[in-house]
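so my prof wants the structure for this chain in the tokens format not the other one, which i didnt know existed until like an hour ago. anyway here's the sequence
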Amino acid sequence: MLLKIHLILIVFTAVTFGSVQHNNLIIAVGDELEFLTDGNNYRTLTLNSYNATKLSALAYDATTRKLFFSDQRHHYGHIFSVSLDNESHRPVEDIVEKNNNETVESLAYDPVNKMLLWTDGLNRAIRRVQIDNDPIHIEEKDGIEIVHFLENDAKPRGLVSDPCTRMLYWTNIHDSNPTIERSFLNGSHREIVLHSDLLLPNAFDLDIMEQMLYWAEDLHNGYFRIERSYVNGTGRQEFYRGMGSFIVSLTVGEDYVYWTDYSHKKLWSLRKDGSSEKPIILRTFRYPATGVVVFRHQPLDCSLVKIHHQAYRADGETLTIIFSTITLLMVLAMAAVLVIRLKDNIRGPLVLSKKNEGTFAFQNLENGSSNNNVYTACERAI
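here's what i got, hopefully its the right format
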């Protein structure tokens, strides 16, 4: 009996922790786009009739399987798109033309209203444009709307949108007043989520299913850190702290957080549940990877967001809860085995004294507790 219980617990543990796998990723490296499948198989994405220069920000729409990307040094365009449906034929569409006094720091796509949004750090603005199914080319500013025109002490960088809650989140990396903010996708109800103990929240993403924000910062003493909090700013905690890397981009998958660093030209991953102490290297590049995004085969199911958020804690205690549950089950199973063995060893009727009539004496089974200069140089480089 006890052996069977142990086997069941072993199988349960293997199923619970053995099913974790890496997401498929799309990575911008120099003038190329790469696919990384299952954390180890990679291939270059061929772009037809397009001469890329310096790719950076990425956004992916799983409903249309379309990838949006920015090209920092292209002569004519700022933002482009390519369909990932056809393996052999991938024409690139010019979405937004280049203007000398505008930048594209980060991209986000809203599949509900078919809106492409981006941060313009140079002009302190968050812009958007309607994306239809037909090919478009925005030549005049009439087609581009401003969602937010921020104050003088603002410099928007990271940008993410939530199609389920209809919210927009962004980071402000101005050195005198860095913040993490949010509003509705239409620009209303703007508010500051976090403003204290922030330096340069450069890389940024949203875990929609768990409703948690992740951001990376370069610290002055040579260290960097990745932090996370709930979307309202509560439950803030340090996810990982390292040294000697400047994180350029970051994205969150089902089970892992992925980021690229400018210093070592690597792609890293770390389990979200805290079960791995150190990140692992998935890929080393010839040039720094300036963008990474999860390649999803299916759109997110918004009906699962609230259920998932209530059922799981995203504060690093998930493993503790699971292991505590397993330990409790093992203790209860052992107690049941002891009861069965005790009954089997008793011969004849059980006689109780009148003093203890109506009671059965068991022993109690107790559950034992049982730096800015570095950032500026990297910003100019990328």
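also thought this was worth mentioning. The chain has four helices and 24 strands.
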